[in-house]
Amino acid sequence: MAASTDTNNRSLLRTARGKLALTAGPSTIWLGLLLLAPLTFMVTVSFMNINEAYNIVWQPSLDNYGQLTGPGLPWESSFWNTAFMESLLLSYVIAIVTTVMCFSLAFPLAYLLARKGGRVFKIVIFLVLLPFFTMYLVRAYSWLLMFGPNGVLNATLLKLGMISEPLAVFNFGVPAIIVGLTHAYFPYMLLSLYASLDGIDFSLVEAARDLGASRPAVLKDVILPLALPGIISGSLFVFVPSLGAFITPRFLGQGKVLMIGQLIEERINSLYAIGYGSAGSMFIVLTIVVAFALAFRYVDVDELGGV
Amino acid sequence: MATNTENTTDVTTVERFFDHRTRERWLRRGLYGIAGLLLVFLWIPLAVMVFLSVAQNASTLFPFEGFTLQHYAATFSDPGLMMALFNSAQVATVAACIATVLGVLASFALARREFPLKSAFRTFGILPMIVPGVVLGIALLIYFRTLLSAIPVVGDLFVPGFLTLVLTHSVYGFPFVLLIVSARLYTFDEQLEEAARDLGASPLETFRDVTLPIIAPAVGAGFLFAWIRSFEDFIRAFFTKGTMDVLTTAMFSMIKYGAAPKMNAISAFIVLVIAILLAVAMNLGNVTQYVAGGPDE
Amino acid sequence: MGLTGTAGCLGGLGGGSGSQTINILTWEEYADPDIKSRIEDEVGVTLEITKSTSSSKMFSSWNSGQNEQYDIAIPNNNYVPKMMDADLAAPVNEDVMTNSGDIYEVFKGFQESQFTSGGNTYGVPIRFGWYGYSYDSREISEDHEQSYDMLFNDEYSGNIIMYDNHFKAMSGAALYLGYRDAFEGSSVSLSEDQIEEVKNTMIDQKDMLQGYIAADPTYIKQFNQGNFVIGQSGRNEIVEMWSNGKSWPKMAAPKEGSLAWFESAVVSKASDNKEAAWKVINEYISPQNGASLAKTGYSPSVNPKTQEHLSDEQNEMFGAIDPSQLESMIPFKSVENEDAWLTAWEEIKSA
Asked: Which chain C positions have a beta carbon within 8 Å of B257's beta carbon?
């Protein structure tokens, strides 16, 4: 705005429009070419058939989607009765349970961090962030060592004589995947919750208590509403990547569990079935769009700033 | 039970006070307990892994057969793995440079300029972080392979390999730079720049002597985050790397192919490197603010 | 800093100085330093070997344009027709392939039936092995009737492993169900009803499984740890366990037939060094190099002359295979209607 006063200087840098072009332009072009265009292309491909030579047949059709869902309409059970839809539902269940787990684990810690400060805070946050920034792959791998009939968990309990046979819960499978995902995405939840709890004026809490509100009532009427943006953004940032998880179910499912990301990956890597893969990805994309649209009803885009 | 505050006598107030204190204490202890357990949960698998990296028997705790450093020696003399490590560092560096340049520029647009569709621009900017890796990886793979590779002359550039991976990671790293640097710019007092300008500094001098020193730590942190994100990414790389191996994909085959000793060693090494990088990044600025939550309102 | 990085990498792609470079995309064992340096000396080229861990990845990377980066790929035989269909492969230069005449007759036959199109041959078998099942002889008697029934036997519930690959696992189940006829001809042709039956059988089996495992070392590791007692596996895993001093794992040859794979070399149609590439391939089946390759991977070479360079013990374990045993095997083949297989496989996995 101030720049527009220098009317005598016509250099690009001096005009507001020029400055905007210089600052926002490059990233717009870059993301346009490497994010928007690929996603648009993917949407397009999802409506095209692919021939034997892996070329696209430019003729719109719903065949790819027809392969994913069963015959019939969404309210008929045959519609849901395909591997893809079952895998999708399983992925939803896993992602939702993971989100709930993350929330229940992160909330007490976030609350504590918000009320504490200084040195303790810095150390704890470092201890939380370090595993978080350690390679995702490494964290998934570390759980690979823990689970299994002879994994560290079962072996230790056996050694201590607490159990006589390996426990099934510590075998690979859905529980192991949920633990792995919770471990992987827990810090997203923690940091989001912390960010919103940190803004809370805790004298409000004291005031409510002094006025005689019970602890659960304070939690419900004061803390939770204030923490809502954090809860929502934290849940999004746990739910979305959990839904599309690939490595964790791959390592911790011992081949018996098929989440949506694995299914799409296998189709792409073994058959280069890009039509099928694109159409499958649309279900993830659509879920994200819906989830964010819902979230925006409660929180502002700025508060979803992110992780 | 706590609602009848109005009519209590002194005695009951005292009783309630003690009762309140005890409960408060137990609550706090419970809270600390949960927090402690959480840290254990976060750390146990990593600790086991680090332990196994120096244990003779690398695959599980029992039977324990003594300590050794031979897994590390074997890891660092594995030429394939070291090549992959080198590739990863190269890709991460180039991609983070691109992401930083674009991200810093875009941050100025967000913090300093008013324009239509600004919030759309912002959402667009953080999108690469939100789109799950599988989707972004496949979208880019199809785009490079089926669309761009078909372009005459330049098409060959987009055969999956080094360049396509750098492009992929430059997009992935962008939001991290954008969030960190724009957060810094929002808190930045623009009047400082105006003052410098009034004192006769050129825009370039103002940028160099006033703006840059203030945002430098944020730019550094943004670069580091983008770098780490690229370095640790598996799934996007898995699709767009072609046959070149980066560290994560090399490690993935190692796990699939059961090379536990080397895997533990390289993983433990990475935990150490990331610990150092993170400590640096945290000292460069308020990491938690960058990582969660938006800019200061 | 970034620019130097790019430049460095682009320089790396440029290849060697002076001598011709042959780029190969293949399995780890082919990059064994001894074999590599011998072939380099013999042919007078530099070998640049990129390791891959699956045939499908070799195929998909070639199909995504990397055929221009590589001269040779050595996937499993069932991927050779796919490469031919995608027009990626160059015809074999018979003049150069002096060792081809020595290979087992049965592989010459496979070459004829699987890799020939329009009078040209496109692939050369290198080494082979087969899939049946292996078991822990401390838990399961060696006298049992060797049949895929064992993998569907609820006596071993919770201790069974199937291969984590739609082709291998479903083929095993199809043979268990007696669909041997589908494996005749140039490709595997299960009817829709048969696929459905395979699927249902495997869904029932899933509860009895410890899991699906894809990679040899994982199989060996978990077998050693006692995570299962019987599993669908290749023979080379078991040979590797024997040579590490474990005698309890036993390999069974199911009466329904074992599935035989043979890795086969293909030269890229886009290669500028086709002749040198075929010379390199010829070396991989020479008596001496073929023997070294057999040793590193515990899998026999297609050239019986390699036995001269192996010890008696090695020959007994993996070097010398009774040709009559080969006749009864079912070679890997490309699959008709692979989409339907994969769909069924996904349904099994997500059941």
From this structure: 53, 215-218
